[in-house]
Give the backbone structure.
Amino acid sequence: MSIFKSVYRILCVVLVIAAVCGMAYKGRIKEDFENYKMHAIPALMYHSISKVPEGWTEDLCVSPEVFEEHLKYLKEKGYNVITARQAMILLKSRQNVMNTVILTFDDGYEDNYTQAFPLLKKYGFRGNFFIIGKDVGKTFNQNGTVQYMTFAQLKEMYQQGMEIGSHTMSHDPLAAIKPNFLPWEIYQPLNLFHEKMGFWIAGIAFPNGSYNETVVAEIKKYVKYEYGFSGVPGCNTLKIVNERPFEFRRAGVYDRGRGAKDIERALQKCYIFGYLEEKGIPAEILDKGLTLLNELLG
Ligand SMILES: [Zn+2]
């Protein structure tokens, strides 16, 4: 018998034992999981709220119709949709945050203003918008037209309860750029947005989820920043707010053609990853493991 087969058999036995033990403890785990959800806030990530333009990857787009299905789902399930800053206040006050979620939008596409903003208002929700400093108000004609929101549009959204944050100046992955360019990427948006819109931003989302210790140390230099979003799936808890405010957890929502089921799955992923992280399984490792498993299983 090959080593592979032996390992496979041992794995099966371990899985069966784990399943039996799991059944016995299911009640307790379920109760523990529900308790966890009372102090954990998931964050979801969107990009463009549009039908997929030609030449774009579909993971960057959720159509307005599907996006509204997602919002309807949140409304029906009684979700409180708040901003990251509000989430920090709620978590610090140790309130029950069951069914609370943060919706984030990266890159600053104009459809965030024309589509997402009115829909969020319709349902009484708020959103976090992360803007690329050098692209504000610009139009690009690569692979179709890409239009970015203007400062006037962003200011209007801010005045109506939306939260605006930085997605750096250039959108280059922060962990890969030279350390002497970090101040421009991180500090410049603070000044630029204050100068153009009259308010200080408090949050940053890392392009492509890319960051490291040097990046976090640079952000901490500028006290205006209160939080940062990584691309690590999970939930945000008081522990994260206190110990890793620049590594907030969030997961992408993608249109896989299942309507509200797609947002339900994304929320489940956040809660499960967050729960396991609290039990000591690092979310980064879990995420890599899951990606590997998906690749192996095709
Ligand atoms: Zn981005």
Notes: The mean pLDDT is 91. The longest strand covers residues 100-107. The pocket of zinc ion is lined by residues 106-107, 167, 171, 207 (CB under 6 Å). Residues 205 and 229 are 5 Å apart (CA to CA).
